[in-house]
Fold these 3 entries.
Entry 1:
Amino acid sequence: MRLFRRGGVWTGRRPPLPDEARELLGLAVDDRVLAWSSLVGAGWAVATPAGLRAVLPTGTRLDRSWTDVDHVAWDRDSGMLAVWWIGRPHPVPLELAGESFLPEVVHERVRSSVVTSADAAVPGGRSVRVALRKAADGTLLTQAAPTPGVRMTDPDVAAAVERARARLRDDAGLPPGV
């Protein structure tokens, strides 16, 4: 990371997101950017208070809420930030083209969106992770992320997940709901 000198003191502050990236990502001038990185092979990724935005080298655009992210993994050696979405088995790889605070910010934002979670045992010896999450606007929602092989349409699975959702909402002092 390039360090800048301000008043004789070295800081870790990065320059602002380049205008070309802001335009490509569809960010307004006043949209707050928490961290950003250019991507290997072209493209950009930014963390905003609302979520993760990216334009991948393939031209694919992402604009997802933090509550859409199941988990992330960062490999410093390769510069690869892998992002798994809720309900998707494969990650979206973001190969960062330099040092950035993006991995730390993404991890912190995803983690802070989880209010509480629990694993619900379902028939067949498997489980479903049920979480109460907080969106950027303060809205609370529950999510269910099954392990491989779990059929969420199975009535016994659906009942176990609903009991876990109700328990999480009750533990948080919330009325029953979605």
Note: The first strand starts at residue 4 and ends at 6.
Entry 2:
Amino acid sequence: MGEAILAGGCFWCTEAVFKDVIGVTGAVSGYIGGSVPDPTYKQVCTGTTGHAEAIRVTFDDALIDLATILDIFFAIHDPTQLNRQGNDRGTQYRSALFPLDAHQRAEAVAAIGRAANSAAAPIVTTIEGPATWYPAEAYHQDYWTGEGQRNGYCLAVIPPKLAKLRKSFAARSKS
């Protein structure tokens, strides 16, 4: 089993996409990269804790490798926007990777290079860490399949991300 920690804007949106990827066994929303121990959503939303909204993805590395996980990550968010994704603004919405070891750090560098080859603007995704991971509150977990289906923001943002996954990585999508 593999793990990766990815920050690509709103964690509800990133989590929803990765839960639809073949080989992904879990995606947990949380916070990483800040200075406040065990932060709350309210604290992170202030933009003063230094944390990013992120997901911790677990995957079966016999079915999908880290390189593919990272390529999907770069395809489903805009890695050229500094400290924002769409209307979400602040350092908590930054594009960042949090490698768990030297191999993941090398994979992150390679993935940024691949993304840069097709990007219309410079990639601003950072490679950060080591850092402590904190799971988000329970009501944030698996948000899209519950409350997210009634949330206007999620309805505007998540379906296009899922469509991009299904188009660009059709063989990797559960749907």
Note: The chain has a mean pLDDT of 96.
Entry 3:
Amino acid sequence: MTTEGDDRILQLFKDHAILRGDFTLSSGLKTSYYFDGRKVTLWPEGAYLIGRRIYRMLVEVGAEAVGGTTMGADPIATAVAVVSHLEGSPIPAFIVRAEVKGHGTQKRIEGPLKAGSRVAIVDDVITTGGSVLRAIEAVEAEGCHVVKVVVLLDRQQGGAEELRSRGYDFSAILSADASGKVRLG
């Protein structure tokens, strides 16, 4: 479903976030394009548009918190939290660390996440689904229930299908084909 602002989100990503060359992804796969979503999620207009788009999705499913694996999810979750405050219906953000913190509170999840919460997991890109699944595992270990998974870009390399096969409600704002051509949904 396309909503107001989606065309602008698409244009921002096409203009600023698609890099061409030879890259190795965190999944280990080789690719001729790299999606650097932070070039848009950390830009004021991009952060606002993405935060507003995802906030609307999360309200529909009753999400009580939003987050994901650091770094890709951090600016997205923060944008959603800020928009939710402006809308008068706060959805707090949290961050899932790659590893348990070795000092201080020794937490894997940072932020005001409460056990039993209905949460949304966000990320900038999904390839095979590894980082999203690690975030899901971390929040479920805290007793939370994942009600939505949203990524900015689906590389269409199996991650979305893996999440859906496990019963998660998954959405992508953008998708890309093997050559890196990006389109809505």
Note: The beta strands are 18-24, 30-35, 65-69, 93-96, 109-110, 118-126, 145-154, 170-176, 182-184.
